[in-house]
Amino acid sequence: MAVRREVLGDEHVDRSIARTTPLTEEFQDLITQYAWGSIWTRPGLDRRSRSMITLTALIACGHHEELAMHLRAALRNGLSREEITEVILQSAVYCGVPDANTAFRIAQETLG
């Protein structure tokens, strides 16, 4: 939970926890333990690298509903706006221009 809070911010995590229902409780536990406890804490990559990979994966798979959250996380993890721009530009070549166009729109709305 500590890593989840450090990466996503207390406000986001508190909102997620507050919206937890009996239906989603086990899923929230799974995310916290697996994604934030097992993957984001591994020593093989730093958080900046993990953020770049995550942004690219979200763009590639069209998971735009998660992109704004991870754009804010990327800033928390030390990426500059210029580096985020580079990640989106890189994804245009390998993931597709329409997905990068959507990512730029979301980044503009999220980061200003």
TrEMBL record:
- Which superkingdom is the protein from? Bacteria
Which SUPFAM superfamilies does the UniProt record give?
AhpD-like (SSF69118)
* Gene3D superfamilies xref list: AhpD-like (1.20.1290.10)
GO MF, one example:
peroxiredoxin activity
Q: Domain Carboxymuconolactone decarboxylase-like, which positions?
A: 26-109
Positions the record marks as coiled coil are: none
Q: What is this protein called?
A: Gamma-carboxymuconolactone decarboxylase
